[in-house]
Write a structure and sequence with these properties.
With about 550 residues, the protein is of the alpha/beta class. It has 20 helices and 15 strands. It starts with 20 loop residues before the first helix and ends in a 16-residue tail after the last helix.
Length: about 550
């Protein structure tokens, strides 16, 4: 479809309001390469839509990010978080509810997650699951090719034209059952897409991911019986949810779609957001499809936001389980809040990978997955996440046995009473050990090295690690050095000790890797983050320039 200057999509049944294409595209530049496939995604019309989103919402986005900085300064002074007094009326009003579940989102008992490369898309949609969260965020390194080709892959998958051949192996969508409902996860508000500039500024990565997926697929998804559904990550306040709601309303109005067609599931993966669950659902209201326990990012957020407070020092990562007080309180409050408002409460990730050639170790790992999913379903969760298709059968067995209904929205958890102190209860038994430090270094280096090669989902020690676990690893090391913690063996964790162990682990990993690895580059960046001094808000932001192809001399692509 081609638009002429001064025409509007409403003229073709899709849009309310005028669109002057030439004027809108002025000072909009695509700095990544395009081919015939990616041009169908980044069409002139789609780019106009992106520009409208960016110009309408980017200033609000930046203001909200500045609010995070202000809040951090308050926490650094020793203040703590609590439920907001100004929104007490929302929390205490029992009359309002979220919407009924959208088509394809009534039963979400098992969701598979993963990046948007073509092989993963086919394998995920062929898995025995109910939904597939196609991830543009933490399990995806945001190279330009990854981002635009991921959009192409989802476009093709929605239209069931994603089959392909790799060598002698064919990858085809199954035809013997209804495919899982597709949910896309856009990048968080803090990230930028530097390959697209609008008025001289990089575009919001959130708006880029959302805008392309929505503009190209929303009507087709509805035609096929579902809708444009999203996972919304990394939010820290209900005001950030309000911004998403405004984006959703504009987007639906723009193409003439009924408001409320879009649905967004919010990952509660930051400690500030845990104090605003009701408010986040309230802000999204007709667009809400529930909340999810983003467990590893949540632990990362607790450490990050209270990193300068010695009362929040945690032991080795392996000791911070879902049953420790602050994690248990977070889960219970999320389930109670969601079901009180009539929306789904989704459980967390099982990141295990089957262990081949060691039946005993594999059986132990799978028993751990089964126990985790049993804890979730008994707590009242409506579904859960797996990272590997082989784990779907375990999750299905547990949820099928204990949840004969499509969901557990009727499980109100009125027995639960969670206070602000419960959410901040750092009484976590465990030790800080050199082995725990080395494991953190291995995970952090291993993930960062893969990410620098353009791989955002990295198998390490039979776990599928993404950015969240790497963030926990470096944040713990930073915190231990900052507060002069001693290991269980009696060794003080200071800057010299941390850098010594980092050097040893980097050399060991590099020695085992093949040519072309990026462990030394990863160690260079990681070394700035484990000394108790400099602390980047996100590793992905710290590393992003290493995987971009943008310079002052990069020519703009022609649409």
């Amino acid at each position: 479809m081609s638009l002429t200057p001064g025409s509007s999509l409403r003229d073709q049944g899709r849009h309310i309001g005028p669109v002057n294409v030439d004027q809108t595209l002025k000072d909009v530049n695509i700095l990544g390469s395009l081919n015939d496939q990616t041009r169908k995604i980044l069409s002139k019309d789609a780019t106009v839509f992106l520009a409208v989103l960016q110009r309408t919402f980017n200033e609000t986005r930046k203001a909200l990010l500045q609010r995070r900085v202000i809040r951090q300064a308050e926490l650094d002074k020793g203040n703590v978080l609590d439920f907001l007094p100004e929104t007490k009326h929302i929390r205490e009003n029992d009359a309002w509810r979220g919407p009924v579940p959208a088509p394809g989102l009534v039963d979400r008992r098992t969701e598979i997650t993963g990046p948007t490369d073509r092989k993963m898309v086919v394998n995920a949609l062929n898995a025995d699951v109910w939904t597939y969260m196609a991830d543009f965020e933490d399990s995806n390194a945001p190279t330009w090719d990854n981002m635009v080709n991921g959009q192409v892959n989802l476009y093709d998958a929605i239209r069931k034209q994603v089959d392909f051949k790799q060598g002698e192996k064919e990858y085809k969508l199954r035809t013997d059952r209804v495919l899982p409902t597709l949910i896309a996860r856009a990048r968080g508000w803090h990230l930028e897409e530097k390959h697209v500039t609008v008025d001289g500024e990089p575009m919001s990565a959130s708006l880029f991911d959302f805008g392309l997926y929505f503009f190209n697929n929303a009507e087709e998804l509805v035609r096929r019986g579902t809708g444009p559904y999203f996972y919304l990550p990394k939010m820290e306040s209900h005001l950030e949810a309000r911004l998403w709601n405004d984006v959703f309303n504009l987007a639906q109005d723009y193409i003439g779609m009924r408001r409320g067609t879009i649905r967004g599931t919010v990952l509660i993966e930051t400690i500030p957001a845990a104090f605003e669950m009701d408010e986040i659902i309230y802000e999204l209201r007709d667009h809400s499809s529930g909340l999810n326990c983003g467990r590893w990012d949540y632990i990362f957020s607790v450490i990050k936001r209270f990193r300068n407070n010695s009362a929040f020092v945690l032991p080795d990562r392996s000791a911070v389980t879902m049953t420790v007080p602050f994690m248990d309180a977070y889960v219970k409050l999320l389930i109670k809040t969601c079901h009180h408002r009539g929306v789904h409460a989704m459980g967390g990730m099982a990141a295990q990978i089957p262990i081949k050639n060691d039946d005993e170790a594999n059986a132990k790992a799978m028993d751990g997955v089964r126990a985790d999913k049993l804890r979730e379903v008994r707590a009242g969760h409506d579904g859960t996440w797996v990272a590997h298709p082989a784990l779907a059968a375990i999750a299905n067995d547990v949820f099928n046995a204990h949840m004969p209904t499509p969901n557990q929205l009727h499980v109100r958890r009125e027995d639960v009473q969670v206070s602000g102190n419960d959410l901040l209860n750092m009484n976590v038994p465990g030790k800080i050990t050199e082995d725990g430090i080395r494991k953190n270094l291995n995970i952090g280096l291993g993930y960062m090295e893969g990410w620098l090669r353009g791989v955002g989902c990295v198998p390490i020690n039979y776990l599928m690690e993404d950015a969240a676990t790497a963030e926990v690893s470096r944040s713990q090391l930073w915190q231990w050095v900052k507060h002069g913690i001693s290991t269980d063996e009696g060794k003080k964790v200071d800057k010299a000790y941390a850098l010594k162990l980092l050097k040893e682990q980097a050399e060991e990993l590099e020695g085992k890797a093949g040519k072309g690895n990026k462990y030394q580059l990863a160690a260079k960046y990681f070394g700035t983050q484990v000394t108790g001094e400099e602390y980047a808000e996100f590793l992905t932001s710290l590393l992003y320039n290493e995987i971009t192809n943008v310079s002052d001399k990069t020519p703009a692509a022609k649409l």
